[in-house]
Design brief:
Blueprint (H helix, E strand, L loop, with lengths): L11 E3 L2 E3 L1 E2 H21 L11 E3 L5 E4 L4 E3 L2 H4 L8 E5 L4 E8 L2 E2 L2 H15 L4 E10 L2 E10 L4 E10 L2 E10 L3 H12 L2 E2 L7
Parallel strand pairs: 3-9
Antiparallel strand pairs: 1-2, 4-5, 5-14, 6-7, 7-8, 8-13, 10-11, 11-12, 12-13
Length: 203
């Protein structure tokens, strides 16, 4: 499993040519967007789960993820109510788990600097944060950098997966209740199932 994509990400084309998003800005955007999306997801009506598809595909067909039993993917109309209009949002119908998927510009930096920036941003926004793991994992569509931390006083475990792909970056922000192993397992299954038609950047 290659990890060099974090050190040498692909550039995203903008109106003035290729552009890269500094990791410090990426880290700040990830934390803010995750908070806003989680609040909005909890407020939306959960609906039923019996007719949830086995796999959810993005509106533009660029990626897909599994939808475990007891989870549902928000419709396009519901997504428009979420701050920042994420590409997809899955929530467990009992409100104990949320996964938010966004598309972002390509990264500028490496895994070490992303860890540093995310740690600083998270510490400024939450109290009692305990980092758990930082690692590169293999997803269905290629490698991703995953930063996991716990918030014991809030009873939450959160993960941010950053998946560089050609032309941009996907982020998957996940929240599960601390100690809810079944929910954490389902969140992990969703993240691991992430597959996209965009190839991994060449190193």
């Amino acid at each position: 499993m290659a990890t060099s994509s974090f050190a040498d990400p692909a550039t995203a084309s903008g109106p003035h040519g290729p552009r890269r998003l500094p990791l410090r800005l990426m880290a700040a955007a990830l934390v803010v967007a995750a908070l806003a999306a989680i609040v909005a997801a909890v407020a939306l009506h959960p609906g039923g789960s019996s007719d949830a598809p086995v796999r959810h595909t993005a509106a533009d067909k660029t990626f897909s993820v599994v939808v475990p039993d007891g989870w549902r993917a928000l419709s396009q109309a519901e997504l428009r109510q979420v701050p920042g209009a994420p590409a997809a949002l899955l929530r467990r119908t009992d409100g104990t788990g949320v996964v938010v998927i966004r598309e972002r510009p390509a990264l500028a930096g490496n895994g070490r600097s992303l860890t540093r920036d995310l740690t600083a941003q998270i510490a400024r926004r939450f109290t009692g944060v305990r980092p758990v793991t930082t690692r590169t994992v293999g997803l269905a569509g290629g490698p991703a950098y995953v930063y996991t931390f716990a918030r014991p006083t809030a009873g939450r475990v959160q993960s941010i997966a950053v998946a560089p792909r050609a032309g941009g970056t996907y982020t998957l922000d996940a929240v599960a209740g601390a100690g809810a192993r079944d929910v954490a397992a389902q969140v992990g299954a969703i993240v691991r199932s992430f597959a996209t038609t965009n190839p991994v950047p060449h190193s």
